[in-house]
Design a protein that fits this description.
Elements (H helix, E strand, L loop, with lengths): L2 H10 L1 H12 L2 E3 L2 E2 H17 L10 H13 L7 H12 L4 H22 L5 H32 L1 H12 L4 H8 L3 H20 L1
């Protein structure tokens, strides 16, 4: 499959990706929680990372500051994922002095509660939720890539963008699209080829 054909297939799959995204977001993970809400919680972690640039006493209570201090003192790695975080905290707790070990065990229990809440009571469990989240992220990246390329194409060649959107995203027949654009069939074929090539260029940038 050449690049032009690949672009066409991506556009044809656009509506299916949007539908799949909506379906995944509505999937329950237990206790009335959906994939969408879990995904939003993950996005909140980005805000928390921004907060970490501020002095911790501005947003953590005294006990949380103690947990943070114990983690910073004993953790050699600081992974992003909760499952990896739990593994690192438990490893650190096993090598810490009694006082900090207690704090790290408490931190581990807090992380376990987050994992349990996310996994819910679904048959898929935690790994299933992670797979759904990963698929959702992949779909969002694909849709964003197409949207950005189509916006760029519309800025430079609005007639090309409309042709591709009508023909492949909306799935309209070629003669309908030609009529909508006010062009003959030969012009339609020429524009379609040029539009596909231009979109390939924008997707490659």
């Amino acid at each position: 499959m050449n690049m032009e054909q690949d672009v066409v297939e991506q556009l044809k799959a656009y509506k299916r990706l949007v539908a799949r995204k909506k379906w995944i977001e509505k999937q329950p993970v237990g206790s009335g929680v959906t994939i969408s809400s879990v995904y939003e919680d993950d996005k909140l972690q980005e805000l928390h990372r921004e907060l970490r640039r501020m002095p911790s006493y501005m947003y953590l209570n005294k006990r949380e500051q103690q947990l943070e201090h114990a983690a910073h003192t004993h953790l050699t790695q600081h992974p992003v994922g909760t499952k990896a975080q739990l593994r690192e905290v438990k490893l650190a707790a096993g090598n810490a002095e009694p006082g900090d070990e207690k704090l790290l065990r408490e931190l581990a229990r807090k992380i376990e509660k987050v994992i349990e809440a996310r996994a819910g009571a679904t048959a898929e469990g935690y790994d299933g939720v992670i797979n759904r989240l990963s698929e959702l992220q992949d779909i969002e990246r694909q849709l964003q890539s197409i949207d950005q390329a189509m916006e760029a194409l519309q800025t430079c060649f609005p007639e090309y963008e409309r042709l591709l959107r009508l023909r492949y995203i909306e799935g309209r027949p070629a003669d309908f699209v030609a009529s909508e654009l006010g062009i003959v069939d030969r012009t339609f074929r020429r524009w379609r080829q040029k539009a596909s090539l231009e979109l390939v260029r924008f997707l490659s940038e």
